[in-house]
Amino acid sequence: MAIEKIFRAYLDFMNEKYRHEHLPDKIHVHDLVRCKHKSELEVLFPEGSYKLSPVLFLGEAVDEFVKNLVLNYKEKLFKDLVSTTSEVEKKISVNGKEITITGRPDLVMEDSVIEVKYSRTPEDKPLEHHIAQLKLYMYLTNKRKGILVYFTPHGLREFIFEEEISDNFVHELINNWKTPRYDWECQYCNYREICPYRIYPNEKKEIIEAEKQIEKEKIEEIEIKKDD
Ligand code: SF4
Q1: Nearest one of 148, 78, 160, 146 to 112, comparing CA atoms
Q2: Which ligand 1 atom is the nearest neighbour of the CA of 189?
Q3: Cα–Cα distance between 202 and 69 in angstroms, integer?
Q4: What pLDDT, in 10s, does the model give residues 127-149?
Q5: Which pTM value belongs to this model?
Q6: Is the CB of 42 under 6 A from ligand 1?
Q7: How many helices (H) and strands (E) does the chain have?
Q8: Ligand 1, from 33, 41, 184, 189: best to mutate by most atoms within 8 Å of Cβ?
């Protein structure tokens, strides 16, 4: 079947494009903006890294198509294009340890970086992890300008960021790197069935409610003691 061969090729392509080393002193942008434990599971179970999902396939297709368009129309429309494939990295000292941050932005232009995203629905504002990813690329390429471009079946969006990205931004991302980074990640994670850290959709809400209840009981206890 043609479909099966296409998806076989797609998985091989994804493996070549995104496979990278996981070293204690080298952090990939892709990993830093999401769940910390997921990177560890990808080392243990590389077979589970990519889902056979048509939506993810479409997202990747849009990404590659845009990069090809920009490259093919460089002379006519994108004279300021520097690269569609560069691997960039920078060393940074974090808590007394030297760490290399590395990543591959979609489009590096002379004065900016551009990240292309595919989404099922248009968003009024860009997603937090996409902003963090873009800012890390701005940091790695020493650009003050970054552009997030969203393609959706219902419309397009473009968000522009102009600022100097400091070492502090990267320090914060590394020091606050947790498992998962966002509660919603577990719902979409390929490893959720075997992951001991998985957060179930209502679990967080229940924990917060339980904590509120304990706090309330403590206050009531203190007030009763005062009355005595
Ligand atoms: S299930 Fe959640 S905590 Fe576990 S690896 Fe996936 S995203 Fe991370």
Answers
A1: 146
A2: 6
A3: 43
A4: 999 999 999 999 999 999 999 99
A5: 0.86
A6: no
A7: 8, 8
A8: 189
Q: Which two tokens stand for residue 124?
A: 């009024």
Model confidence pLDDT, tens digit, residues 60-70: 999 999 999 99
How many whole angstroms from 144 Cα to the centroid of ligand 1? 33
pLDDT digits (tens, 9 = 90+) for 69-111: 999 999 999 999 999 988 999 999 998 999 999 999 999 999 9
Q: How many CB atoms lie within 10 A of CB 40?
A: 14
Question: Which tokens is 135 given?
Answer: 């800012």
Task: Report the SS3 class of residue 5.
Answer: helix
CA–CA separation, 171 and 196 (whole Å) = 27
Q: Tell me if 195 CB under 6 Å of ligand 1.
A: yes
Residue with tokens 């889902």: 51
Instruction: In whole angstroms, give the CA distance from residue 224 to residue 84.
Output: 67
More confident: 143 or 223: 143
d(Cα 99, Cα 27) in Å, to the nearest integer?
Answer: 7
Q: Confirm if 115 and 106 have CB atoms less than 8 A apart.
A: yes
List domains and CATH numbers for the chain: 2-197 (3.90.320.10)
What pLDDT, in 10s, does the model give residues 150-196?
999 899 999 999 999 999 999 999 999 999 999 999 999 999 999 99
Burial status of residue 156 (CB atoms within 10 A of its CB: 0-12, 13-18, 19 or more): exposed
Burial-class residue 96 by CB neighbours within 10 Å (0-12, 13-18, 19+): exposed
Rounded (10°) CA dihedral 79, 85, 92, 144:
20
